[in-house]
Amino acid sequence: MDSDDEALREFVTKRYPRLRRSAFLMGGDWSQADELARDTLARLITDSQRGVVADPDAYAFGELMAAFRRRPGRREHIFVAAPDCPGAQPRTVLILDALHRLAPRCRAVLVLRHVDGFAVDETADLLGMDDAQVERYEAAGLAAMETMLATSG
Amino acid sequence: MIELGRVLDDVFDGEPGADGAVDAVYRRADEMRRRKIRAVISAGLASAAVVVAVGYGVATLVIPRSAAGTPGADPAASGSAEPPDQVLAALRPVVGDDLMVLPRHPSRGAGWRQYLTVGTDGRSRGLIEVSVYDAPDDLCFPVLADAGACARPEHRDGVDFVRYAFDSDVDWQVNEVIARRRADGRTIVVLATGERGTGSAAAGRPPLTGAQATEVATAGTVAAAFDGGEQCNGPDPVCPVLRVRVPVPAPVDD
């Protein structure tokens, strides 16, 4: 295994949990999140080996968010807790429910900015928006989350 | 303002384990790569099949029956009804080795022949149509810019001729030569039309240059290749549609 392959494997190992968490926040389902994270990283590996990936982080998170844009929307969100774990805590359900009442693009902005730690301009690039749109979505999303969590709290 | 990152951390309390996930990702990547290779190979095979099918179809259409008969059989020796094509025999040395000239089905009629040309790269280079007319002594060679004027012809070996070139539209480039023998008024028209709609001046260039078309049109062997009774003077829809029409009177029925 050469150094490029090692670096790529290290990237996949480190990013897999982060991608899966982001996918879970976007979709509310751990098994779906697992599937999407694996699929995204598998595509990243094949495209990296073809030499067409300039920025692996931008590629991975951009592809993940694009996958949610391609998926048909559901009217009702069902949050699935992992087996044998305390995932069904009422607080978890409340937070996810509040997050999923936001528009998908607004939710994507909050996840990329506050969970994955991307800057405003990076988030704008990943979602195909301009910086001002990202800032508007972020402010509106945070305010809405605060209101919803206070109300349900 | 809410600290969203900290709030969302609570959501991950029930996060399932990720054992073996990275190996699974790599297995999936291998599977994707194999699928892509299979798709590329399938597409290649499909393209090859299409090329073979198209090639077979084109060959069936353009190769005359005499050439496509029993391998090794000599049409002349076997008594084939198809006479040797003297126009083709005159064309081939003029175009040289850069182009293959093949009769194009339907390849001949009373007063005309048509040929497909194929470059060394296997691409079609357009059509050559040769037709014959009976023209009077006072034939007025058309002038494109003036419908009422007659062009002053050039002369070669007892033949008056005028060349016409159309190359302003790269998608329809034509070289045409009208050549009239003074001795008997037999008038040969050579129409060389480049491949249409290529969008490229080079790819759509006519298969004969003006000089080559002139050489063919003024060759005695070409005029002699047509029987005396053959001519396209009449409103025969099968005769070539010329870019510059020969202003000859229609034949009078006996």
Task: Write up what this structure looks like.
The complex is a heterodimer of chains A (153) and B (254). Chain A is mostly helical and 153 residues long. Chain A is built from seven helices and no strands. Chain A has a single domain (3-152), classed as Up-down Bundle (Butyryl-CoA Dehydrogenase, subunit A, domain 3), CATH 1.20.140.160. Chain A is globular. Chain B folds into two domains: 21-62; 86-225. Helix content of chain B is 29%, strand content 25%. Chain B starts with a helix and ends in a 29-residue tail after the last helix. The A-B interface holds A 9, 12-13, 16-17, 20-21, 24-25, 30, 34, 37-39, 41-43, 45-46, 49, 81-83, 85-89, 91-92, 95-96, 99, 110, 114-115, 142, 145-146, 149 and B 1-2, 4-5, 7-8, 10-16, 18, 21-22, 24-26, 28-29, 31-33, 36.
Strand order, largest beta sheet of chain B: 1-2-3-9-8-7-6
Q: What is the distance, rounded to the nearest whole angstrom, between the alpha carbons of the first and last residues of chain A?
A: 52 Å
- Determine the number of helices of chain A (DSSP H or I, runs of at least 4 residues): 7
CATH architecture of chain A: Up-down Bundle
Task: Tell me how many strands of chain B there are.
Answer: 9
The helix fraction of chain B, in percent, is: 25-40%
Structurally, the number of domains of chain A stands at 1
Largest interface, counted by CB within 8 Å of the partner chain's CB: A-B, 40 and 25 residues
How does the overall form of chain A come out from the CA principal axes? globular
Low-confidence stretches of chain B: 66-79
